[in-house]
Amino acid sequence: MFFSKKFYDKYWGFDNTKIIELLNKAQKSSLKVKKGNNAVKKDFLLFASVSKKELWQFINKLSIFMNSWIDIKWALWMLVKQMRNPLLKKIIWEMKTNIDHGITLHETMLTYPKVFDSLTIALIEVWEKTWQLWKILAELDTNLLQNIELKWKVKWAMIYPIILLCLTLSMVIFMMVFIVPKVTESFKKAWSELPWLTQMIVNVSDFFKNDYLTIVISFFVTFILIKLIKKTNPWKVLFATIATKLPIIWFVIKQSNIIYFIKSFTILVDAWVLLLEALRTSSNVVPNLLYKRELIRIKNEVEVWLTISKSLWLNIEYDASVYLNKLFPEEFAYVVNTWEETWSLSNSLKKVWLNYNSELKRYIWNLSSMMEPIIIVIVWFLVGTIVVGIMLPFFEMWKVAKNL
Question: Does residue 111 sit within a domain?
């Protein structure tokens, strides 16, 4: 009964899909996962997640074990003992258990798409077909570490000015709520009509003081609405388009997506992954939806025997060629075209990746340095406006006293 025809395809080749489904059902029916002498409740794992740093630590240690010629099951057993994340422990234990049932590592990884990205799964699958685990894990280890560093730099480039602006707004709100009302309270009694700037500051101060619940509720409603609408495809496209056109930030978004693509694509090509599969997997690695769609379009055109450079809309057959692709720079298309003539894509793209990565680091450093004086100017403008608005009534009183 176990070897019934449902475990074979129409060509009578063994298909382990049904076995994987049966094992997944058995795992889901179990409420506890082995963890040494302890037990981890499944309900707790529902809220668990694996960070990129923890995933890198797992790949890094697995690479060290495999390069030391330790058996894969023994290596996974030791990693279960070393990992602290309960979800990652559960996944590694499943990997070890599934190997005994003929299920490969990448097939286990496919059941956890939120933990393992497409590039990691594709490279592990390449290892299982070529038996070059030490080389694949070394590439994957380096790639994950570089991605963590790049994401941290990109996030810092966008978060740093936001932090400074939030601190500035917090200071202004504090002044409006606690300082301005005490200073302007006497103005309301002594003056029938305040100067327009002072009156505006008083109105803003009253709004922050009396209607703060409206501000808090509006903020949370806006935050929830943005989270909800970002899940719909049209809004995803809109946000992705806006991200590539925002002043200052657009370069960081475009450059980082190109770097993600180049790095993942070259790793897959060096691992002898088929060109179409490398393009498809790379499209899942880039974070921006516009770049995902563009890479899928390129992959579909390459599938009908069009070259990558022409799919990028590079036309060198005419003297005055016009390049219209707004997502990938023209120099990148020329590098790809050079590879198509010389078959040295990996080396060429690696040099481009190094140049783009260095350029992005310089831009982020310059951006951080440039934002500091800009924020200082904004702070002085806001604080100066409040101070001038408060001092205007005194100037008016001085003019009246002078006329007397």
Answer: yes
> What does each C-alpha distance from 15 to 5, 10, 55, 64, 101 come to in angstroms?
10, 10, 30, 33, 13
Q: What is the pLDDT of residues 112-130, one digit of tens each?
A: 888 888 778 877 777 776 6
In a 3-state reduction of DSSP, which class is residue 273?
A: coil
Q: Based on C-alpha coordinates, what's the Rg of the chain?
A: 30
Amino acid (1-letter code) at residue 319: D
**Residue 97 structural domain:** 5-116
pTM over 0.90: no
Q: Which residue has the tokens 């030391």?
A: 68
196 in any annotated domain: no
How wide is the angle at C-alpha 89 spanned by C-alphas 84 and 95, nearest 5°? 150
In a domain, 46, yes or no: yes
The helix/strand/coil state of 41 is: strand
Could you tell me the CA-to-CA distances from 182 to 206, 380, 386 in Å, in that order? 11, 21, 13
User: CB atoms < 10 A from the CB of 93, how many?
Assistant: 19
DSSP β-bridge partners for residue 41: 32
pLDDT per position as a tens digit, 31-69? 344 444 343 444 445 556 788 788 888 888 888 887 777
**Residue 69 domain-assigned?**
yes
Kindly state the tokens that stand for 309. Answer: 């450079």
| Rounded CA separation 10/98 (Å) | 25
**Mean pLDDT, all residues of the chain:** 76
Number of domains in the chain: 1
> Rounded to the nearest 10 degrees, what angle do helices 118-130 and 133-174 cross at?
170
Give the lowest-confidence range in 9-13, 105-109, 160-164, 228-232: 9-13
At 284, phi and psi to the nearest 5?
-80, -15
DSSP state of 288: S
